[in-house]
Amino acid sequence: MSQATDSDVREDGVIESVSGPVVTAVDLDARMNDVVYVGHEGLMGEVIEIEGNVTTIQVYEETSGVSPGQPVESTGAPLSVDLGPGMLDTIYDGVQRPLDVLEDKMGSAFLDRGVDSPGIDLEKTWEFTPELEEGDEVSRGDVVGTVPETESIDHKVMVPPDALEEGETAEVVSIESGNFTVEETVAELDTGAEISMRQEWPVRKQRPAAEKYTPTKPLVSGQRILDGLFPIAKGGTAAIPGPFGSGKTVTQQSLAKFADADIVVYIGCGERGNEMTEVIDDFPELPDPQTGNPLMARTCLIANTSNMPVAARESCIYTGITIAEYYRDMGYDVALMADSTSRWAEAMREISSRLEEMPGEEGYPAYLAARLAEFYERAGYYETINGNEGSVTAIGAVSPPGGDFSEPVTQNTLRIVKAFWALDSDLAERRHFPAINWNDSYSLYRDQLDEWFENNVDENWSSTRQWAIDVLDEEDELQEIVQLVGKDALPEDQQLTLEVARYLREAWLQQNALHDVDRYSPPEKTFRILEGIKAFNDEAFEALDAGVPVEEIQDIDAPPRLNRIGTTPDDEVEEFVSEIEDDIAEQLRELY
Amino acid sequence: MKEYKTITEISGPLVFAEVDEPVGYDEIVEIETPSGETKRGQVLETSDGLVSIQVFEGTDGIDRNASVRFIGETLKMPVTEDLLGRVLDGSGRPIDDGPDIVPEERRDIVGAAINPFSREYPEEFIQTGVSAIDGMNTLVRGQKLPIFSSSGLPHNDLALQIARQATVPEEAEGDGEDDSEFAVIFGAMGITQEEANEFMDDFERTGALERSVVFMNLADDPAVERTVTPRLALTTAEYLAFDKDYHVLVILTDMTNYCEALREIGAAREEVPGRRGYPGYMYTDLAQIYERAGRIKGEEGSITQIPILTMPSNDITHPIPDLTGYITEGQIIVDPDLNSQGVKPPVNVLPSLSRLMDDGIGEGLTRGDHGDVSDQLYAAYAEGEDKRDLVNIVGREALSDLDNKYLDFADRFEDEFIEQGFETDRDIDSTLDIGWDLLSMLPKDVLSRIDEDLIDEYYEEEGEAEEVAAD
Questions:
Q1: Distance of alpha carbon B49 from alpha carbon A425, whole angstroms
Q2: A168 plus A223 within the same structural domain
Q3: Which of A337, B26, B112, B321 has the fewest CB atoms within 10 Å, measured from its CB?
């Protein structure tokens, strides 16, 4: 949080009333969204309403014991984040205070109040390598040099977007390589602007970009049902709604672990403390499937658990997306996971009701839809202001009350996002994971991504997928009949379709997030399994046409081995599947 | 300390008073009624000149002449190791005629959030001796695992069974590596005297009382007091766990009554209500209770929570179970149908879940086959359940051999695996062995969730042979 370094406190006000996280003050000279320090302990808050002489503030910390008459100080600046090297491999709270630093400063495992800390380490030095020379021309956003931030990521030091006007150029008058702290000047411009590695940016304001493109590259997730049926594009938006226990968090974490993004920003918004601990424990141990380096080297975590102050929960989404945009500006593909946007919406509702605003649907504020849209719109595949291409992919979990998708947060989210991965408690109860319902889910990116998959994986990608969708659709219809009359009453070809659909579900759609091999399925493997099942389908229907009874087809022992492909190491898949295919063909042809 | 006689309004559990000096938010207030009775309350909202106070013991007897004193501090719980063995009321005052409590420290009951960075991930298996839990929804130290139940079901018996039998296997073997003691904190909110007696009798019968602290807010105690009872209990738990190295099991019953008290206060404050009239901040409020479970790096002790709640009309989408389920790490569901079949404990494992299970089981923790067996039992039982719907329509004869096996499996699963009575203490090995016994009814090739090596090791061939013979 950048305000820790600001000392230019503008004007004092006095607290008039306190009600939970909402405090009003009089005589405070502050603008909307300015950060203020409240009470003797200096609790951090943000101005959310100004009416006459009365300013309403949402406070990011517990307000027990704060009383009227205590002072309020305004910093005169909106809620901002510190941007610079050192954000990766770090875990922040909702207002970008590093949790490890807080632990040190507080000397306790419990979060105390009134302790502030800058978002990036101001003491640490980084090795800066210039990419420009004296005399070079720069405009805003241009990269002046790089810093090795982690083993995976080179941090690009850019001219801050607000240092120059749009279209304005300036000449570099001095630039040096060497070790610097984030506040020291590494380059100077002829306009007098001094460039350091650290930028500040107000979280509620989108960082500028040159142009937004239609995304055409997939964010390969390593999850078969997603890559295979409901792919998401780099720069796309997706929602994962589902009742509790259906696996939202596991799905989000799998994406954070295996998606082929350069940077992952993972926001734990109002969720469980132990879940964040799991991420903190796991990520340094797990290798990034793209680079082999520890996952933490590309990850920034933001944890505002459910029992941490509600106002900071409201801001953590903005903190996260601003950090994501900053790395996008360097030309990286960033994936942002927000778990869960419902908690964010509830935080808005809680603050709104304390303000006694007129409620919209189910007590949510009337501006809920606008805020959700604003957030997801900050995702996208962009040409950055320095001419690079970068993307932010936003994937939000939604926790609908009672698993009912008709509630306002789910509905308003669906109006914006283009991929929808509906989690299903029935599937979860039978331990079919990921419990993504293939009948309800959709992805509007499918067609625009087909080309990539056909060029990079297999030319039959889309036709084979369409075959799988048709079989699953038919199964869905047949199941209704089976529920009434039993499977044996169906004609033989339909029984065989059910058998094929079962393999699609068990060998292809199911994926064990906890198995060392199965948890990540490259698109080639995803496709190969599908091909294997289709091979069984084709052979089996041929046998059926030749008069082989369906029971005999079901009895051969090669097809059940399809279920083991998922756990077969990637380099053995080809051999293993070919062998199964051969055995299936051989065993079936023996029958006629 | 200033005294005011400036009450302007009394409404339900709330009192509004004028003040001429600033009063802190959340501070404790003492109100003396004209008859000399002292009631305690808490500042809900404070502004220049006016405060609203929520009175814990009910507002009856308070009139506009009552005097109001502001203590100048927030609500504190006196904590000491001597609390073990004591019975307190819902506000933390002893009601067991024992000696006065000499506190070692007085702690703020709101409790700060544990820094997620300082948490230790829970992965220590707790053996409850209940197959439905150990085998299928394993509890680990530092977890919060609620019991979702309905009125008229034996959830209390289950909670008591867990409290009685819970051990960590290494401890039983006496490794001596971990000498932390076990303590139970029982927080009752709005339960009937009869239920309270049931708990107290069991605690006394088994001698558990001496390692327990009991907080009792009964059905006829003031509803508002219920909002502080769990916080007192958890403040005590934190002290015992993180200052005195105890492994604390906290049982909170009944969270439904707690939430109803929240709603009552919300309504009295004329707040904009959320779903079904419950306040919009109920998620945050419940989280501040449930999230106080856990382990901390470098600390010996731990807090494991088993909150119990009764789902109104057995509806899991009701806001109370719904919000709870989103915060807790799973849920154990007590089912009326199994109960009427006489299954004890009537735990329906299908909708039940333990989120921390995967990290607490397996080789070196429980047994190498645990994860696969549990997955397969789930899948097979779900399959059997499905077939039950079908068999009602078409009859058993119309089903295939395999389908009939699934049906038999589902029946035996309920009668042999789940059913064990409230007194039987099954260790994890016997639980898994029963699981294999049942799985061996099914042909090997449908056991797709289990690793082939494990099938070779545990699958009981003769079991299958018997089945074939029986056909």
A1: 52
A2: no
A3: B112
Confirm whether A393 is domain-assigned: yes
Question: Phi/psi of residue A412, each to 5°?
Answer: -70, -30
- B118 at interface of A, judged by CB pairs closer than 8 A: yes
> Do A114 and A133 belong together in one domain?
no
Between the two ends of chain A, the Cα-to-Cα distance in Å is 73
Report the CATH number that the domain containing residue A564 is assigned in CATH. Answer: 1.10.1140.10
Written as one string, the DSSP assignment of B76-98 is EEEE-GGGTTEEEETTS-B-SS-
Contacts of B325 in chain A (CB under 8 A): 243-245
Are A530 and A506 found together in one domain?
yes
A332, A345, A405, A419: which is closest to A375 by C-alpha? A345
The answer to whether the annotation marks A380 as part of a ligand binding site is no
Cβ separation B317–A280 shorter than 8 A: no
Please give the pLDDT value at position B364: 85
Give the tens place of pLDDT for each residue, A176-186: 999 999 999 99
Helix or strand holding residue A300 (H, E): strand A299-304
Q: Assign residue B30 a region (left: φ > 0; alpha: ψ between -120 and 50; beta: otherwise).
A: beta
How many domains does the structure of chain A reveal?
4
Chain A with chain B: Cβ pairs closer than 8 A: 220
10 Å CB burial of residue A551 (0-12, 13-18, 19+) is exposed
Interchain contact B251–A (C-beta under 8 A): no
Q: Kindly list the structural domains of chain B, giving each domain's residue range(s) and its CATH number in brackets, ordered by start.
A: 3-73 (2.40.10.170), 77-360 (3.40.50.12240), 370-470 (no CATH)
* A3 found inside a domain: no
Q: Which of A90, A274, A285 to mutate to test the interface with B (most CBs of B within 10 A)?
A: A274
Residues A191 and A105 occupy one common structural domain: no
CATH of the domain at A19: 2.40.30.20
How far apart, in whole angstroms, are the C-alpha atoms of residue B317 and residue B311? 9
Examine residue A452 and state whether it is found in any structural domain, yes or no: no
Q: What is the pLDDT of residue A5?
A: 42
Write the DSSP symbol of residue A207.
P
Residue pair B346/B306 in contact by the 8 Å Cβ criterion: no
A244 in a known ligand binding site: yes
Cα nearest neighbour of A40 on chain B: B24
- pLDDT single digits (tens) A485-515: 878 889 999 999 999 999 999 999 999 988 8
CATH number at residue A379: 3.40.50.300
Hey, what's the torsion of the CAs at B424, B429, B432, B437, to 10 degrees? -90
Q: Is A522 annotated as a binding residue?
A: no
Any B CB within 8 A of A20 CB: yes
Q: What pLDDT does residue A309 have?
A: 85
Same domain membership, residue A483 and residue A563: yes
Which ipTM was obtained for this model?
Answer: 0.84
Residues A53, A166 within the same domain: no
Q: What integer pLDDT is reported at residue A8 of this predicted model?
A: 47
Which helix (DSSP H) or strand (DSSP E) does residue A334 occupy? strand A333-339
Per-residue confidence at A414, pLDDT binned at 50, 70, 90? very high
Q: What is the pTM of this model?
A: 0.90
A17 is in an annotated binding site: no
Q: Please report, for residues A90, A182, B188, the alpha-carbon distance to residue A127 in angstroms, rounded to integers and kept in the order given.
A: 19, 10, 59
Q: Which domain holds residue A130?
A: 125-197
Mean pLDDT of B321-330: 92
B43/A371 Cα distance (integer angstroms):
33
Residue A267 lies in a domain: yes
**Does residue A299 sit in the same domain as residue A392?**
yes
> Which sign, positive or negative, has the C-alpha torsion B116, B120, B121, B126?
negative
In this predicted structure, the answer to whether residue B179 has a pLDDT above a threshold of 70 is no
Nearest chain A residue to B327 by CA distance is A272
Same domain, A336 and A230: yes
Instruction: Please give the Cα distance from B243 to B261 (Å, whole number).
Output: 31
